[in-house]
Amino acid sequence: MESQIILKVENLSVKFEEEQVLDNISFSVKKGDIFAVVGPNGAGKTTLFRALFNFIPYKGKIEWQEGIKKSYVPQRLTIDFYFPISVLEFLTLKLKKEDREAIFEVLKNVGFSGDEHHLEKHLLDKKLGSLSGGEFQKILIAFALLDKPDVLLFDEPTSGVDIGSEKTIYHTLADLRKKTGLTVIFISHDIQMVYQYVDSVLCLNKEAVCLGGPSQALSAEILEKLYGKEAGVFAHEHRKF
């Protein structure tokens, strides 16, 4: 595999009983890129992620660069928000021992500002259930970063997040790439944010509808194929997003 290619997928197919969920998918991801997977519900996006982690059987080839460490942020995390766990206690679950220095580092990397005393008082002591949707997503990213991954895979970064926080989450991912060289692969329905923030995009509907830069892959014609005529009209009218 070429040194700048961190992931190479060739002729990937997944079948559940008689249903073809993914059909002959091929793509590659460069080190340090932000790569998006878009497509309608039922297109096989989450199945693709499960295959990338070898959680399900598949046909074809998935080749990660040797020694790459991956971390995954799910679309939904099953947490009882009435359970009295603090942000600090949650983040410490990832560590063998409480390491405040590592925790403060990842919190600042995902955009939480203030000195350690401020973060301790106004964030770490808060209960998970009291966080806003945007704050919670950033804590999930921080949790994943405690593994010191080379690649972060994220299923719907702005799921459950208010509109005002959506751009902040995408900006956080882009800033992480800039600061650390992190490769980011994510699933999204937010075409406008994908257009603004990604290097490459895979348009998926069980098979690869298009692959390339956002200006190419998110054309009105492609979006109409993926989502129907209304999406194509929207793309045409908002060509510059």
What is the CATH architecture assignment of the largest domain? 3-Layer(aba) Sandwich
Q: Structural class from helices and strands?
A: alpha/beta
> Any idea what the shape is?
globular
Order the strands across the largest sheet as they lie in space: 5-6-7-3-8-9
pLDDT < 50 runs, ≥5 residues: 236-241
Explain what you see.
This protein has 241 residues and is α/β, with parallel strands linked by helices. It is 38% helix and 25% strand. It has helices at 45-52, 87-92, 100-109, 116-124, 133-145, 163-180, 191-197, 214-217, 220-227, 229-237; strands at residues 5-16, 19-30, 34-38, 59-64, 70-73, 151-155, 183-187, 200-205, 207-212. It has a six-stranded mixed beta sheet with strand order 5-6-7-3-8-9, sandwiched between helices. Strands 2-1-4 form a three-stranded antiparallel beta sheet, covered by helices on one side.
